[in-house]
From TrEMBL:
Annotated Gene3D superfamilies: Phosphoenolpyruvate-binding domains, PK beta-barrel domain-like, Pyruvate kinase, C-terminal domain
Stretches assigned to the Pyruvate kinase barrel domain: 30-360
Enzyme class, broadest EC rank: transferase
EC number: 2.7.1.40
Occurrences of domain Pyruvate kinase C-terminal (ranges): 395-515
InterPro entries xref list: Pyr_Knase, Pyrv/PenolPyrv_kinase-like_dom, Pyrv_kinase-like_dom_sf, Pyrv_Knase-like_insert_dom_sf, Pyrv_Knase_brl, Pyrv_Knase_C, Pyrv_Knase_C_sf, Pyrv_Knase_insert_dom_sf
Family from the record: Belongs to the pyruvate kinase family.
Highest taxon, organism lineage: Eukaryota
Source organism of the structure: Nicotiana attenuata (Coyote tobacco)
Protein name, entry field: Pyruvate kinase
Pfam families: PK, PK_C
């Protein structure tokens, strides 16, 4: 990273390092996605996670059944009511994930320099010499010398729970491999990843479609995380499927980039998806270690310029079992923020980790510190230059609102919106102050009943850096014939005051549509 990307002012910044971080209503501008599972599914724990800074709850359907996840979701709803914190729901598909099946669940010890056979016969028992897998086409996809990685849950990289294999022979449907390191596999399932090899399976599997058409449809999920996205067509196919499922036509699709095939088609995928998740666990296997950071920086930059959320995974793996992250992990979180990431996704750390609440809290604190030295001025100029001229009317007004807020040192930007597009455009220019996105519901009818839209849009902004949504009274239109709708503005200002981000004599920038025009106003508050 070039030095111009940081605002490290000497000696003031060095002295401030020793000052304790001050607690705030918004823990950080960068959002945190928490995966709910066995260690984080009670109402009490989820409530604590929400208060610590989790704004999106991820439900990983690569394991667990619908009944288990439904019970967790009901607990989430109860936690939202008790904590009064909004939270979006993300469904993560299983996708074409290869797995080793261990029906006995007995630990399997694998010794370095020994041979092990991978077989599609799932009726056989898993042993140190034989591992049944859930895919019959592996023997047709690999060749001698290919690398295969097997790890428990999400990849940890730890040699005690993960194993590297090298293909030495293909026998019919079986694949014979040389074990490269000793490891013990424990549990019923382990993920299997073949480095840089295309697996001929659909991205949206039949199992995924069943989960979406039942569990996701019933619960009106906000975001679909499309695992193993390899082509733009994968996103189009998923969107077409969602469009036929009632309210799920409003669900956003985040493409999860997990291998070199997805990387090669990244630009086309970004054009189709609503956001991108960089699955660094799998990418770290497909790519040489020294190349992972390059892809992260390039991909996040592309997402920033497109105004689409970028989510980074696998940042504090060690906190699955430890109360504090390593120095490298803490730096990694900060660098993800400085790169421009919108959100940090926690997987095993909250799913089965011993300290889910503490993990969310520490990650939030690191993000907040990194945001203090984020060079918004350099980023703003780069974003404006990238968009070029002529800008669209809305983008021009949105970027002007951010520049005005910086110039007058506004404490917040208040944006009135129905679709959420205006608020996301403002967030694209990374204002250093929070953006209170006042979502005004729209009244819709299907000739049989009246319904309000807006809830989806409000929750979906919970994964965008710097956006903090408020659901407004539907009687207040987003487009007003008056200069400003005073009553709904008062609600937003009161919320800001309660949050502690608006104080007497502060300046506030307001973005609102008036008729066919978009207007930016600067308000100076009295006592």
């Amino acid at each position: 990273m070039h030095s111009t990307n940081l605002l490290l002012e000497e000696p003031i910044r060095m002295a401030s390092i020793l000052e304790p971080s001050k607690p705030t209503f918004f823990p950080a501008m960068t959002k945190i996605v928490g995966t709910l599972g066995p260690k984080s599914r009670s109402v009490e724990i989820i409530s604590s996670c929400l208060k610590a800074g989790m704004s999106v709850a991820r439900f990983d359907f690569s394991w667990g059944d619908a009944e288990f996840h439904q019970e967790t979701l009901e607990n989430l709803k109860a936690a939202i009511r008790s904590s009064k914190k909004l939270c979006a729901v993300m469904l993560d598909t299983g996708g074409p994930e290869l797995q080793v099946v261990n029906k006995s669940e007995n630990p399997i010890s694998l010794q370095a320099d020994s041979l092990v056979v991978l077989t599609p016969d799932q009726d056989k028992e898993a042993t140190s010499n034989l591992l049944p897998i859930n895919f019959s086409g592996l023997s047709k996809s690999v060749k001698n010398g290919d690398t295969i990685f097997i790890g428990q849950y999400l990849f940890t990289g730890s040699e005690t729970t993960s194993v590297w294999l090298e293909v030495t022979e293909v026998k019919g449907e079986d694949v014979v491999c040389l074990i490269k390191n000793s490891a013990t596999l424990a549990g019923p399932l382990y993920t299997l990843h073949v480095s840089q090899i295309r697996i001929d399976l659909p991205t949206l599997t039949d199992k995924d479609k069943k989960v979406i058409s039942t569990w996701a449809f019933r619960n009106k999920i906000d975001i679909l995380s499309l695992s193993y996205t390899r082509h733009a067509e994968d996103v189009r196919h998923a969107r077409e499927f969602l469009s036929k499922l009632g309210d799920l036509n409003q669900t956003q699709i985040f493409a999860k980039i997990e291998n070199v095939e997805g990387m090669a088609n990244f630009d086309e995928i970004l054009g189709e998806a609503d956001g991108i998740i960089l699955s660094r666990g799998n990418l770290g296997i497909d790519l040489p270690p020294e190349k992972v950071f390059l892809f992260q920086k390039a991909a996040v930059h592309k997402c920033n310029m497109a105004g689409k959320p970028a989510v980074v995974t696998r940042v504090v793996d060690s906190m699955t079992d430890n109360l504090r992250p390593t120095r490298a992990e803490a730096t990694d979180v900060a660098n993800a923020v400085l790169d421009g990431s919108d959100a940090i996704l926690l997987g095993a750390e909250t799913l089965r980790g011993l300290y889910p609440v503490e993990t969310i809290s520490i990650v939030g604190k690191i993000c907040a510190e990194a945001e203090k030295v984020y060079n918004q001025d350099v980023y703003f100029k780069r974003a404006v230059k990238y968009v070029g001229e002529p800008m669209t009317h809305l983008e021009s007004i949105a970027s002007s609102a951010v520049r005005a807020a910086i110039k007058v040192k506004a404490s917040v930007i208040i944006c009135f919106t129905s679709s959420g597009r205006a608020a996301r455009l403002i967030a694209k220019y990374r204002p250093p102050m929070p953006v209170l996105s006042v979502v005004i519901p729209r009244l819709k009818t299907n000739q049989l009943q009246w319904t309000f839209s807006g809830a989806f849009q409000a929750r979906q902004s919970l994964i965008v850096r710097g956006l903090f949504p408020i659901l407004a009274d539907p009687r207040h239109p987003a487009e007003s014939t008056n200069a400003t709708d005073e009553s709904v503005l008062k609600v937003a200002l009161d919320h800001g005051k309660t949050a502690g981000v608006i104080k007497p004599h502060d300046r506030v920038v307001v973005f609102q549509k008036v008729g066919d025009s978009s207007v930016v106003k600067i308000i100076e508050l009295e006592n």
